[in-house]
Structures are given as structure tokens and as C-alpha cells.
Amino acid sequence: MFKLLIHTALQHRLLVLAAAVLLLVYGGLTLHELPVDVFPDLNRPTVTLMTEAEGMAPEEVEPLVTFPLETALNGLPGVTRVRSVSGVGLSIVSVEFAWGTDIYRNRQQVAERLAAIQAQLPPGIVPQLWPVTSIMGEIMLIALVADSEQVKPMELRELADWVLRPRLLTIPGVAQVIPIGGEVRQFQIIPDVILLEDLEVSLEEMQQALLRFGANTSGGFLDQGSREYLIRSLGRTTRLEDLQNLVVDYHEGHSRCFSNRWHR
After folding, report:
1. Radius of gyration over every alpha carbon of the chain, rounded to an integer in angstroms
2. Are 85 and 141 in contact (CB under 8 A)?
3. Which of 114-120's residues contact partners 24+ apart within 8 Å by CB, and which partners?
4. pTM of the complete model beyond 0.85
5. CATH for 46-129?
6. How far is CA 244 from CA 191, 240, 259, in A?
């Protein structure tokens, strides 16, 4: 067979030469349009979910957050494998799809399934879709250390949230920046149940007052001649003193605030 192939090629030299030239031209055109990737993507289309569960131990994160997500995402079309990691206050679920599937269509399917199972998760737990990245991407851990003991962990966390993170996100190629650790600034309101009962104020009324706090409301507009004046109620504030003077309820012409029992 091999001798017959050589003999035929020698007898039809022009035909073999023309075929070689055509293959050479076709290879050159294909090489010109072929994309070049130094680090090709070697993993399947993967959609990653990260869920923060503040205050939960890994033993609680696994059955309450991770397991419901895995059960719901396993039935999606094209899913080949679901992996998860449950840590302290954090759940990471990776959903791998088959080769050749569209990653953006996969993310849409995952987002639709998340909307259906949101009621099964604990209150305040909202899974977030991770940006489209590859396992070939490098993960860099940056630690903020204070030289002085006077710098509090809360100040370092605020520096990471409001200064370092926005600047890192402006760098091309950076997909996500997640600050972890430190102390997050928060204002806690601890109600005195006995005092609330004496003042005939319920916890629901206090909660509704807090929900209405610090919000601007619209009152429409006023026509005057050829002009329209916008009417607004400006209540947005960041002052702690305004929260202390928040009116919760009215009783016999007096207002009940957070800072004192009775306030005219």
C-alpha cells in the first residue's frame, strides 16, 4: 500500500504539487485567523455562588445554606458536577456545566433557580453570583497591618472597604475584591422590653419607625405660574443624634423617642 502511494505520487507530480500548494495557502490563512492564548482556559464553564451567613458556624452553614443550594442546582440542564465549601459564615458553591455550553446562559439558569429557592434559605441570606473568571486566574491575598496599636480593626476594615477595594477594582483584569476580617461598623438598638410595655409600645412599632428612618419622601410638585416646584421631605441623614431622637409613637400629645421616655 505504501509503495503504491509513492508510485502514484511520482506519476502525478503536478497534481501532488498543486495539492501541496493549496494546503500551504489554506494553512497560512487559518494560522492568521487562529486566536493565540498563552494561558488557555482548561476548565469547564463554571458558575460560582458565594453566600455570606454572618454568625453561623460551618455546622450551620452546611445544612441551612449549602445543602439547599446544591440540591436545587443539581437538576439544571447541562450540569456535570456541583462542588461546595462551607466555612465560618461563608458558603461557596461551584456549578460545573458541560463543555461547549454558553457561560452566560448558564448564569441565567442559575439566577432563575436562585429566585425559586430564595424562600428556603434563612432570612437575610442572599447568594451572590461570582464574576466570570477562570481557575487559571491568580488569587492574591493582601493583609492590612497597623504599625500602631492605636489603630483599631474597625478603621482597617473601613480603609479596605472604602479606599483599597475601589482602587483595586479599577485595575484591568481584576474581577472581584472581597474584604474579610476586621470589625464592620454597625449601630445596634437593644430594646428594653419592660420599658416598652410600660409605654405601651410594641416591637413592631419600633421596627416600622426604624424602617422609615433616614428616607426621603416625595410630595409631588406645585404649579405656580409657568414653574413647577418639587415638594420633598428630606429625612436622609447619617447623624447618630437623629437616630436617638427618632419618634416611635405619640401618646396624649407627647412623642416617644429612643433617647428618652417623653419628649414634646
Report:
1. 32
2. no
3. 114/49, 114/72, 116/72, 117/68, 117/69, 117/72, 120/68, 120/72
4. no
5. 3.30.70.1430
6. 13, 6, 5
Element (H, E) at 180: none
CA 220 – CA 230 distance, rounded (Å): 6
Lowest mean pLDDT among 100-104, 131-135, 159-163: 131-135
Contact 264, 254 (CB under 8 A): yes
Average confidence (pLDDT) over 6-28: 87
> Band of the pLDDT at 263, cuts 50, 70, 90?
very low
The amino acid present at 239, given as its one-letter code, is R
Say if residue 158 is exposed, middle or buried (CB neighbours under 10 Å; 0-12, 13-18, 19+).
middle
Residue 261 makes CB contacts below 8 A (sequence gap 6+) with 195, 199
In the structure grid, which three cell numbers stand for residue 203, read together?
A: 416591637
Residues whose CB is less than 8 angstroms from the CB of residue 102 and which lie 6 or more positions away in sequence, other chains included: 45
